[in-house]
């Protein structure tokens, strides 16, 4: 899972924990490092900026304690890739292992205990970015600002969330010309929206009550996400929703400003784009397209180019 992200953004390779710590203090978040055993020079750090976000991959290569006084005006989304990391808050402890993630709020004081094989991905998100997305999403903010609950999530259980994270990190790890066309900010906004939907927060305090129509469309979108590789039909989705095809079209038009068929098509294009960029097992474009039940390859190539600005063969070659 995400093992090769940020390979092109290495800052430190096989160095001391202190050297990595110095870079982290400048670019990720203020902290104090304490070595918990004999020092081994195998620490690594990859770091890059991507549309107001700071993305990093950290491995101290030693058992260390990291004390964070607070995160000031930033949020941290942290994923444990290997090993384990223990979070020590003032009132509770929790241990995260591979595939598990946590949102950290501004102002929180914590201690972290890294195992010697622990590797983490960290997304640093300015408070302003979260606030702007919440205002757009809900129309207003809670008085205390957005506060995420201390609830661990296993991101491997959500394929759409994992795909979003992969897309952001791979886009950031390459100096793509597409970023100049505003795609980087679109990825950023999508990631923040996914975080707000995945991790519980006090945003619900200012959200309007969920309607039956909201629940229905969320059920349909979840079904599409789970079965994106299948040849999905509108009739199949209407059966999942328990409503008529006409009502389903109305829900998509009012809630998503699109049609069910167009939504499925875009979801498949995004998934295939991710596969071509990151899945080393994919040998050619036809294989990737057929895996997602795409049969009209000429039309697919044209729609792919309209969406991403290049042919799928170019994406595959660039990998």
Automatic annotation (TrEMBL):
- Per its UniProt record, what Pfam families does this chain match? AraC_binding_2, HTH_18
Tell me the domain of life.
Bacteria
UniProt domain HTH araC/xylS-type: residue ranges = 218-318
Keywords, ordered alphabetically: DNA-binding, Transcription, Transcription regulation
Q: What Gene3D superfamilies does the record tag this protein with?
A: Homeodomain-like
Protein name as catalogued: Helix-turn-helix domain-containing protein
Taxonomic classification: Bacteria, Pseudomonadati, Pseudomonadota, Gammaproteobacteria, Oceanospirillales
């Amino acid at each position: 899972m995400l093992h090769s992200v940020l390979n092109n953004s290495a800052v430190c390779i096989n160095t001391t924990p202190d050297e990595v710590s110095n870079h982290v203090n400048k670019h990720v978040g203020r902290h104090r490092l304490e070595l918990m055993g004999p020092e081994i020079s195998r620490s690594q750090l990859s770091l890059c900026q991507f549309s107001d976000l700071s993305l990093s991959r950290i491995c101290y290569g030693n058992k260390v304690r990291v004390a964070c006084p607070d995160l000031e005006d930033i949020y941290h989304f942290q994923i444990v890739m290997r090993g384990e990391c223990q979070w020590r808050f003032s009132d509770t402890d929790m241990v995260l292992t591979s595939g598990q993630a946590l949102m950290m709020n501004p102002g929180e004081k914590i201690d972290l205990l890294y195992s010697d094989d622990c590797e983490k991905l960290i997304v640093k998100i300015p408070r302003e970015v979260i606030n702007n997305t919440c205002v757009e999403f809900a129309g207003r903010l809670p008085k205390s600002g957005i506060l995420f609950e201390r609830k661990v999530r296993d991101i491997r259980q959500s394929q759409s969330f994992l795909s979003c994270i992969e897309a952001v990190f791979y886009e950031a790890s390459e100096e793509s010309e597409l970023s100049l066309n505003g795609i980087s900010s679109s990825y950023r906004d999508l990631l923040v929206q996914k975080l707000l939907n995945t991790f519980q927060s006090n945003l619900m305090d200012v959200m309007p009550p969920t309607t039956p129509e909201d629940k229905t469309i969320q059920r349909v979108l979840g079904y599409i996400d789970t079965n994106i590789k299948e040849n999905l039909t509108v009739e199949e989705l209407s059966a999942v929703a328990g409503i008529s095809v006409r009502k389903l079209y109305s829900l998509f038009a009012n809630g998503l400003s699109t049609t069910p068929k167009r939504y499925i098509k875009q979801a498949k294009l995004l998934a295939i784009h991710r596969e071509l960029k990151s899945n080393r097992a994919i040998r050619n474009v036809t294989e990737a397209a057929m895996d997602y039940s795409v049969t009209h390859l000429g039309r697919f190539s044209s729609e792919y180019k309209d969406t991403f600005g290049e042919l799928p063969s170019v994406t595959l070659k660039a990998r």
